[in-house]
Design a protein that fits this description.
2 domains; 199 residues; alpha/beta; Rossmann fold
Amino acid sequence: MVIGLTGGIGCGKSTATAAFARRGFLTTDADRIVREAVLPDPAVLVCAVERWGRGVLGEDGTLNRAAVAEMVFTSESERRWWEGVIHPRVRAIWRGRVESAPEADWVVEVPLLFEAGLEKGFDFIVCVGANASVQLARVTARGMSQAQAGLRIASQYPLEKKLKLSHAVLWNDGTPAFLDAQIDRLIERLRVTHPASRV
């Protein structure tokens, strides 16, 4: 079974993914793939420089993520172009990982799962949600201003839309134990509805 896990920024997707991992799921994270494998790719750096100039590179020649964020979160056309560069590469990597262990049960964390039209690539989709005030507090606690956080939230589908499109919802504005209990109930449900899986 391959679960696609999505949700709004600041809703605790990575916390939920880690909880699935503790229960024996193999996991992979699209954002980490971007940071560790895609952004350092020389072909991606060339694309960025050709589009925006060498100002998007740091002194060490790596991508200046803050400069790129300024470009893509303030311009719809630039964001869509950048996603066209990034998304196919990310998709190829996580699909390769899943295909390398087809007998396993997987959770693939993809923040822009619906925005990128990836819903047909999963057996089951889980959305992690939280109240807007909790979501904003978590994002600003990472060092973003409220304006920056607002731009990132606005770049995604509204959370309520993601919730409606998903097969199941994990609500994560309570304690870790509250989230864990929801995941345990979900796994029990999946054992019934997807008996071929190993969950």
